[in-house]
Write a structure and sequence with these properties.
41% helix, Jelly Rolls, 2 domains, four-stranded antiparallel beta sheet, Arc Repressor Mutant, subunit A, three-stranded antiparallel beta sheet, alpha+beta, 219 residues, globular
Length: 219
Amino acid sequence: MRPDYEMLSHLSLFSGIHTDNLQAMLQCIGGRFQTLHKGEFPILARDEVPYVGIILKGRIHMIHEDAWGDTAILSAMGPGELFGETFACGTNLHSSATFQAVRETRILALPFRKVIHTCQNSCPFHYQLIENMLRMVSDKNARLMEKLEIVSKKTLRRKILTYLSFQAELQESRTFELPLSRTQLADYLCADRTAVARELARMKQEGRIDFEKNTFTLL
């Protein structure tokens, strides 16, 4: 599939970089495009992660599995977002989490060492790429702090309401689309699916929220 450099230029990672420079920069860095099928794993736990991935379309979940095989969704990422950067940037390049495509997904993999070390030409747009990536890593860390706040709530109801509140803020509307299925939401909240469904139904009856499938409204 031929890369759409016009589309790439609108992503936050490439903000401030002219479309005409994108192709040359990606060739210099060694960027690689890849299509993932639903259920495919671009990174498994304990894999070495030498690259930073950016999602062009589709969705990827970062998942942790414990010794008993129970899984929890640590982060759900969509178009324009980075994945794998936590491990690619560290001193230990091996991932402690698994990344899975939850639908057909198109990604761009950028070798991290070539991203942070400019080429001999010292292209100004390369410095812009580094600045953009640092900003995105900072924003993602803020979202992970939100996850910590959610799961630290003492009751399941407070966890759900805090999560829904963050989604409303993120989508800038009291009516918004939930990016997770009920099973995925339960995994994200570290809760039982039946308990989550029951609590959602109770809050709907009480007039706290309304929802139809994955469209939610805070009342």
